[in-house]
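Support case: NAP complex. Customer-provided input:
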Amino acid sequence: MKKIRLGIVGCGIAARELHFPALNELKDLFEITAVTSRTRKHAEEFARLVGNPMVFDSFDELLDSELIDAVDLTLPVELNVPFTEKAVFKKKHVICEKPISINVENGKRLVDLYKKTSQVIYIAENWRHIKKFYKIKDQLYKIGKPLFFTWNIWVRLDVNNKYVRTEWRQKPKHIGGFLSDAGVHHVAAMRLLFGDIKWVSAVDRKHSDYLGDSDFLSALFEFGNNVIGNYVVSYSINGEEKFEIIGDKGKIKLIENKIIVNEEVIEIEDGLGYKEEFEDFYKVVMGEKENNLGSPFEALKDLAFFEAALKSKGNKVNISDII
Ligand code: NAP
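Agent response - structure generated as follows:
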């Protein structure tokens, strides 16, 4: 099987703790041949961890090295668009961490480029590879017509949290800080269940002084299939998670990896989707399937939810007016 020679760009938490363990299980598909990061020492440490690929001082040198077929971008979000553009210009395929960009206007540049180029641009949204959401979707028929969906997520991040301590999250250039950085996962999962979102009305608040931007959002919205959604998320307050779909003939709850469909309990063995995401990227590069799960346009729609929500200030904003 032909291996994709991969250059990893940005040797931080995601590269080290999320992408490398997945790639380590996919050695028949990928070979990490080159790495670069802002700080050479971090690139060298990462290189030692992954098997001593070539370390480059800059992204340009890595791109010109002839050692790679594709780049894996695990960078501060504001670099996603310029780095992807550069890689595509150099005829490299790209897998780039979510969110697609700092805002919708910036992200549209990648959607436009994606339409024109024969290189693959794959936005890595691992929640589109998590099995439990597909299982829930399969079970929806058991509750009749879905009418209402509510998701309350409380993730108290303290001041010493490793993500909180990254400087680009402390002074975010991406809209809404953690709201969009982590929240695009939630919107990807919700859209996987009910399809595109038509409009949103939300309020946001900043309850902490160390999370960079607003850290609380309460949103009411409507999916294209008329299901009404209610999404409440906080990154500074603890609370009890609630995930519930109400239909005209029953309800579905999700508690961690346990799906409760009316009286029936379904336990799911699930991972976080990183390995599946790279397997999917491989198939897309090899021309074996279409890029439906890493599509920049889908990633843009996830981000657009937050742009609309933050803009709304309690009024109703149509997603189509933003995208
Ligand atoms: P991070 O730990 O700060 O890592 C970012 C890395 O980028 C750092 O190692 C930094 O360099 C490097 N960098 C910064 N500027 C650079 C430049 N100009 N050229 C080359 N390298 C540069 O952040 P992270 O938590 O890994 O997040 C990175 C991306 O992954 C973000 O898009 C984030 O949203 C995503 N992410 C996704 C998940 C998920 O579950 N899917 C989870 C976490 C993060 P040095 O360290 O060398 O100075």
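The pocket of NAP is lined by residues 9-14, 18, 36-39, 42, 59, 74-77, 79, 97-98, 126, 163, 166, 168, 181 (CB under 6 Å).

Case will auto-close in a few days if no follow-up is received.
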